[in-house]
Specification:
CATH superfamily of the largest domain: Class I glutamine amidotransferase (GATase) domain
Radius of gyration: 21 Å
Number of helices: 15
CATH architecture of the largest domain: 3-Layer(aba) Sandwich
Largest sheet: 7 strands, mixed
Shape: globular
CATH class of the largest domain: Alpha Beta
Order of helices and strands: EHEEEEEHHEHEHEEEHHHHHHHHHH
Strand order of the largest sheet: 5-2-1-6-7-11-10
Distance between the termini: 43 Å
Number of strands: 11
Helix content: 40-55%
CATH topology of the largest domain: Rossmann fold
Number of domains: 2
């Protein structure tokens, strides 16, 4: 798509939604376009929603989304947006991948949203290019596709291929599209409709913890949490954490108690276990590898801590998900 603004011509968008996708990612695609049409008083975006097999799509929240038909290699338009979620192998098999490779030639922008980036990579569409993925999957995405330059940005635009790391970054990406196509004033009006007053740039990093206004209200607390995020696999002592965050241990403990009602050590452990729970539930990594990634040298100590937090051992939780 040209970066020139041609407001008299509407943008034809094809959205492909895979089962087990996030309703927030879908809404972050649809509602900015709907709002853009509303503020402009005319059709700026026209969209079609498709699924791999033409059947309604069951999202992770249990809501079933009606679609307009089945995706095929013959699709054409301005923007092709692929929204993926869990269990891609189940829903995006070889015919779908082949169709996506062909259809991508017929669009000026092809975007992979959340796990949609994996589909673009499997097609070879982003080889030699820059892309992003959801922060939970960045490391695995980079290992799986060594020919892709993986960045932890909220969203990435590299030529016609765009990738987004989650629902909120997708909203930012859609505002970027609106701004690119129809100008900043329309994008600002759309953001205002949703009281979205902290629009992010593409290159803003994806955080593990969304701190909101805490970074402005208590930057030293925010700094400590960001440091925890970066050291999940090699956790620091609370004393070392406080020193690296530029404060005393006592000051750090008071900040956590006042803002979060929890000690720094307990919050740190909870953050590591939350990451472990996601890896146990959503990946095929061995339990030992999960433990190491989350800073546990002993498999037995990891299992005990995990069971205290979730009421079941990592293996029991994994077996219960299948």
């Amino acid at each position: 798509m040209s970066s020139s603004r041609t407001p008299d011509r509407h943008v034809k968008v094809v959205i492909v939604v895979l089962p087990e996708s996030s309703i927030m990612s879908l809404a972050s695609v649809l509602d900015p376009m709907r709002a853009a049409n509303r503020v402009a008083g005319k059709i700026l975006f026209n969209w079609t929603i498709l699924s791999p097999d033409g059947e309604p799509v069951l999202l992770t929240c249990g809501v079933v989304i009606a679609v307009d038909g089945m995706f095929s290699a013959r699709q054409q338009g301005d923007c092709l947006l692929i929204i993926g979620g869990f269990n891609l192998d189940r829903y995006a098999q070889k015919p779908f991948i082949a169709g996506l490779q062909t259809a991508a030639r017929h669009f000026s922008i092809v975007a992979g949203i959340e796990s949609g980036c994996w589909l673009l990579a499997r097609c070879g569409l982003v080889n030699g290019r820059t892309a992003t993925a959801h922060w939970e999957e960045l490391e695995d995405f980079a290992l799986a596709f060594p020919d892709v330059s993986v960045r932890a940005d909220r969203f990435v635009t590299d030529g016609k291929f765009w990738t987004s790391g989650g629902a909120s970054p997708t909203f930012d990406m859609m505002l970027h599209l609106i701004r690119q196509r129809f100008g900043s004033s329309v994008a600002l009006d759309v953001a205002s409709i949703f009281v979205y007053d902290e629009t992010h740039a593409a290159t803003d990093a994806q955080p593990l913890v969304s701190l909101g206004r805490m970074e402005a209200l208590d930057p030293q607390l925010a700094r400590a949490i960001r440091l925890m995020e970066r050291t999940l696999d090699r956790p620091l002592s609370v004393t070392a954490l406080a020193l690296r965050a530029g404060q005393s241990q006592r000051q750090l403990e008071v900040r956590f108690a006042r803002a979060l009602g929890i000690s720094p050590g307990s919050y740190y452990l909870r953050l590591r276990l939350q990451t472990a729970q996601r890896l146990v539930s959503d990946t095929q990594l061995s339990i030992r590898e999960v433990a190491l990634r989350c800073g546990f040298d002993s498999l037995s100590s990891f299992s005990r801590a995990f069971k205290r937090q979730y009421g079941a051992s990592p293996m029991t939780l994994r077996q219960g998900r299948h």
